[in-house]
Structure formats: structure tokens, C-alpha cells
Amino acid sequence: MLHVTLDLYGCNPALLADEAFLRGVLETYPERINMVKVGPAELRYIKTSNPLDDGYSGFAIIATSHVSLHAWAPYKMVNIDVFSCEEYSVEDVVAFACETFQTRDVEIHTICRATRSPRISAREQQHSRTTEALAHVVEERPIEKMPVL
Q1: Which of 65, 66, 68, 84 is catalytic?
Q2: For the whole model, what pTM was predicted?
Q3: Any catalytic annotation for residue 66?
Q4: Which residues of 102-117 are buried (b: 16+ CB within 10 A; e: fewer)?
């Protein structure tokens, strides 16, 4: 289970203040990282006691956990979390975020979670079945001796 957190700085503030744009990011992010979204994205504008801290927060539930974001236009900053019990590409997560929010200034944190969990992901199960099937094929073939030169 992998949890990736991104803190992106120097983002285009107009994008961070655009509700339709941010909702679109949450709607498309799961597919871009080969995950299955199970419902519509949720996005809210949050007002605080400090107007500089006002901004959008949202998430998309995926079949294997979630994608979330918190955007603050005044700070030109967005925080993104991707958590899944299925494997995914950290590089794809980072590339999509940097491209989408028009920045290269990013902090990346990866956390391996539930390291003692007995749960095996579907991809790991498939890999295990494929490996076992190949092992049987190898076992059934006689080993040919190479001629000595």
C-alpha cells in the first residue's frame, strides 16, 4: 500500500481558484494513474477566519482508496495525496501534477503503509499466479544439456 503526498509551489493561482478546473483534475487524476474512480469527485470551497487560508479541498474515491487535493490560490500552492492498496507509478502521479498545475517546484513524500497487512493486492495476486504458471512450465520442460566445446 503506497501513500504519496505532493506539495506543489509556484502554481498558477488562476488554476487554483478555478472550481471547474479543480473538479476536472479530481475527475481525471484516477484514470491517469490507472485507478478506477467509483463516484463523482467532491470539491468544496472552505472559508476560514483568515482569507489567505480560504481555498478548495476535494477528493475522489477510487476503488482502492482516494485522491485528494487542497488548493490555496493566494499561496500559489496545492497539496495532493494519492493512497492506494494497488501499485501505481509515483512518476506518473508527479508528472501529471506538475503538468496540470504548471510548476516544477514540488516536494514528494512516499509512505509504504500497512507493511504487515495480510492483504495481497489484485496485481500482486495476478503476478503470483503468472509466476506460478511459468514455474510449472519450466518444471515440465526437460533441461537440455549444452554441448561442451
Answers
A1: 65
A2: 0.79
A3: no
A4: ebeebeeeeeeeeeee
